[in-house]
Design brief:
Elements: H1 2-21, H2 57-67, E1 79-84, E2 90-93, E3 97-104, E4 107-112, E5 120-125, E6 138-143, E7 150-156, E8 167-172
Antiparallel strand pairs: 1-2, 1-8, 3-4, 4-7, 5-8, 6-7
Amino acid sequence: MATFFRRKAAAVTLGVLALTLTGGGIAAAQPTTKAPAEVAQPGARQPGVGTQPPVSETAARQARAAMNITLAPPAAGTVAWAVVASNGTLLSRSPNVVSTTKYGPGQYQVLLDYDVRRKAYVATIGTTDQFNVPPGGEVSVAPRNLTPNAVFVQTRTSGGTPADRPFHIHIAN
């Protein structure tokens, strides 16, 4: 038994020595050029890029008027939803979705007729074209500043640049 362990220890030692001398199978080459910033992962965004546009007095008035619509909020466990084109047009919606507004490249507001501040929002890039794959990109959703019955949607390219993209949104109640 002792001979077996000595042979095994010798084989392991020889293997470690061989791997150490050959570099351990790890590539040691360095890239000659760095990737441009727009190709890099979008985790580090520039300050101010993800900010929401200010709420105008007209938009605030429209939001207050939408809250006075007599429809009841959806029951717990249901969702309000909308399908929005890249130009901000509301293509399809549930009854509680009132309107959409496009502010700038990839910046949208979805207005509802009830308070959505404590709800869950889920959005995805998507289209309504039959058999069509939506364009690549990212989408993020947040409560709309100073507007309790709206959500703010930001769409971007895969590189993180704000861009117009069609999207689908669900607000869970």
